[in-house]
Design goal:
Layout (H helix, E strand, L loop, with lengths): L25 H11 L3 H4 L2 H8 L3 H25 L5 H9 L2 H33 L5 H18 L1 H32 L12 H4 L8 H5 L2 H7 L5 H4 L7 H10 L1 H19 L11 H9 L4 H33 L17 H20 L4 H32 L13 H21 L5 H27 L11
Helix pairs in contact: 1-8, 1-13, 4-13, 4-14, 4-18, 4-19, 5-6, 5-18, 6-7, 6-16, 6-17, 6-18, 6-20, 7-8, 7-16, 7-17, 8-14, 8-16, 11-18, 15-16, 16-17, 18-19, 18-20
Length: about 475
């Protein structure tokens, strides 16, 4: 297991084996898991995806959701085998080798840094709804500093803030579904005259631009699911991971059905898909169309909290990943220190400073900032998911050979469904390469890979020189 960083961390009641305070209870873990399935990718990114795919976007979210469930059950099996903070990076280290653990931790850190930039950008766009005179960069900077303060205080405060952010999102989406069903069945509001289930097929059919165009939206759809795996990062700070983590993962299909498939089905039945466009939240637009007083402003507040929630989770995750790297001598030792409140303050601070690049992008290219960073975030997320699946396959092989104990939470389908999910992620990667606008993330990914390999070579050289151990595990065959 990962060796704790030496300090005054040991022996305190309520702390995990890694020095973290186990301050996240069942209520908070459940809402963090729910909140991870509802983010800017749905509230903001769905507008562009609807414009490209029409009603078939519902099928794309459902298809991606099935694969995400395979990934999360694979992660769940690993988490119950050995619940640790840093989760999938530690599993990659154990089952694939030290380099893959190192690369996964750094790449997941990158994913959250750029995703944080995207969320800050989206939050600034939402503020424009009420205060169009405020520059995007000003709003994003204010939000960055506020969430930074929340993450520095304690994991309990983080969990409480995330709980209420998620509660707002869940309540609002359920409310939007109920109101949309009311418009469809009772015909009230300004949209009542044109709202009908037939809108799902009447404007060019389910695939108005062809199946190929619909499949090209999968890269954006996958971005919407980034953060579902953050529940794995909480393992080292969960009060009862053996009970809370399986429950959080097993409710994922219902969250996908209700919050993605359900909300989009109602939305596209109430408002024709041809009216949606990129850069505008389809949920805000739909409620403006319905004409309910203050409804659009309320929905805008909800999507604002969704963006801030995801950014909040990002700051939490980056600090934990940097600490896991420091513990394994793969990052400066300063990242391994916990402050008096048991949070990795230095790692969070450095990550937030880099998220500040998003503020600069909002100053320089406010109209393109969201698209730039989401594509990079998607590529980093796909790598992380691939490492989870590959680790699960190797773990299952070790269990079948009798070298490791079986997990108390086995994934249905075993390694077979992990292979299916891997193939799907490879397909999405090919789609990204085919899209001339999105493939920039692959160029960034290639540069990132070169940097990772170069950094690993330096680590190996230092290991030979100093005799330090870089990486706690030899891969399990």
């Amino acid at each position: 297991m990962t060796t704790p960083v030496e300090s005054d961390e040991t022996g305190r009641p309520g702390e995990g084996d890694e020095g973290y305070a186990r301050g996240l209870g069942s209520r908070q873990i459940q809402m963090i898991a729910i909140g991870g399935a509802i983010g800017v990718g749905l509230f903001m990114g769905a507008g562009a995806n609807i414009a490209k795919a029409g009603p078939s976007i519902i099928l794309m979210y459902a298809l991606a959701g099935v694969v995400i469930f395979f990934i999360m059950r694979a992660l769940g099996e690993l988490l119950l085998y050995r619940p640790v903070s840093g989760s999938f990076a530690e599993y990659a280290r154990e089952f694939l080798g030290p380099f893959f653990g190192y690369a996964t931790a750094w790449t997941y850190w990158l994913m959250w840094v750029v995703t944080g930039m995207a969320e800050l950008t989206a939050a600034a766009i939402y503020i424009h709804f009420w205060f169009p005179q405020i520059p995007q960069w000003v709003s994003s900077l204010v939000f960055l500093l506020v969430l930074f303060g929340v993450n520095l205080i304690s994991v309990k405060i983080f969990g409480e803030v995330e709980f209420w952010f998620s509660m707002i999102k869940v309540t609002a989406i359920i409310g939007m579904i109920v109101i949309g069903l009311g418009v469809l069945t009772l015909g009230f509001s300004d949209a009542g005259a044109t709202a009908a289930p037939g809108n799902l097929v009447s404007q060019g059919g389910v695939f108005p631009h062809g199946i190929g165009s619909s499949l090209m939206t999968l890269q954006g759809v996958m971005f919407a699911y980034l953060a579902v795996e953050v529940v794995g990062v909480t393992a080292g700070e969960s009060q009862n991971p053996e009970k809370t983590l399986p429950k959080a993962i097993n409710t994922l299909p219902w969250r996908i059905i209700i919050f993605y498939v359900g909300s989009l089905t109602v939305l596209l039945a109430v408002v024709r898909w041809t009216e949606f466009s990129a850069g505008v939240s389809p949920f805000v637009y739909a409620f403006e169309k319905i004409g309910i007083p203050l409804a659009a402003g309320i929905v805008n507040f909800v999507v604002l909290t969704a963006a801030l929630s995801s950014c909040n989770s990002g700051m939490y995750s980056t600090g934990r990943m940097l600490r896991a790297l420091a513990v394994n001598s793969e990052a400066p030792k300063a990242f391994g220190r916990l402050n008096s409140r048991r949070t990795p303050a230095f790692g969070i601070s450095v990550s937030v400073a880099l998220m500040g690049i998003g503020v600069i992008l909002n100053y320089l290219v406010p109209e393109k900032a969201f698209g730039y960073v989401t594509s990079v975030g998607t590529a980093a997320g796909i790598w992380t998911w691939m490492m989870i699946l590959a680790s699960h396959i190797r773990y299952r092989r070790a269990v079948e050979a009798g070298r490791l104990p079986a997990s108390a939470f086995p994934a249905p389908g075993g390694a077979v469904l992990s292979w299916v999910a891997l193939a799907f992620l490879a397909f999405v990667t090919c789609l990204i390469a085919y899209d001339h606008e999105a493939r920039v993330c692959l160029y960034v990914g290639a540069l990132w890979a070169v940097g990772l390999v170069g950094g690993w070579q330096l680590l190996k050289r230092r290991t030979v020189t100093t005799g330090e151990e870089a990486g706690a595990y030899a891969p399990v065959e």
